[in-house]
Design brief:
Belongs to the small heat shock protein (HSP20) family. Keywords: Stress response. This is 16 kDa heat shock protein A. This protein is an alpha+beta fold and about 150 residues long. It is built from 4 helices and 7 strands, in the order H-H-E-E-E-E-H-E-E-E-H. The strands form 2 sheets. The protein has a 4-stranded antiparallel beta sheet with strand order 1-2-7-6, with no helix packed on it. Strands 3-4-5 form a 3-stranded antiparallel beta sheet. Strand 1 and strand 2 form a beta hairpin. The longest helix is centred in the N-terminal third of the chain and has 11 residues.
Length: about 150
């Protein structure tokens, strides 16, 4: 049984806090936690992220990516005709179907996906609405001080 300590990742990422909690729950205590295909989650900018999955043997026609609410779902399945066309003496490249789900944080959007050299790259961007962004509040004079200054000037 493997246990991954994801606590260092909590400090260095923004936007995936909930996802790391879900991943931590999945890997702790469950021996049947999905481990295929392997993937990386990296931070590429202040509010930009990239999920990279190793999907050797799959083409872009075999993979579907769906984003619904706060869930990103990646599914892949080889068609039967591709699997049965050759007789394999040894099959070391896994071409089994998979479905991987990621819980995305609020305001995280999928910006695009690309498949190159057997790696599926999914780019994500966290866009905080203008109303939720922090803003500076100017410090002004109190109403009593402004009245006192006006009466003294008169």
């Amino acid at each position: 049984m493997r246990h991954f300590d994801l606590s260092p990742l909590y400090r260095s990422t923004v936007g995936f806090d909930r996802m790391f909690s879900v991943l931590d729950q999945m890997t702790s205590g469950e021996s049947n936690a999905p481990s295929y295909p392997p993937y990386n989650i990296e931070r590429t900018g202040e509010n930009a992220y990239r999920i990279t999955m190793a999907v050797a043997g799959f083409s872009d026609k075999d993979i579907s990516i769906e984003s619904r609410e706060n869930t990103l779902t990646i599914k892949a399945e080889k068609s039967e005709e591709q699997n049965s066309s050759n007789e394999f003496l040894y099959r070391g490249i896994a071409a089994r179907a998979f479905e991987r789900r990621f819980q995305l944080a609020d305001h995280v959007e999928v910006k695009g996906a690309s498949l190159e050299n057997g790696l599926l790259h999914i780019d994500l961007l966290r866009q905080i609405p203008e109303a939720m962004k922090p803003r500076q509040i100017p410090i002004g004079k109190a109403a009593n001080e402004a009245t006192a200054i006006e009466t003294a000037a008169a």
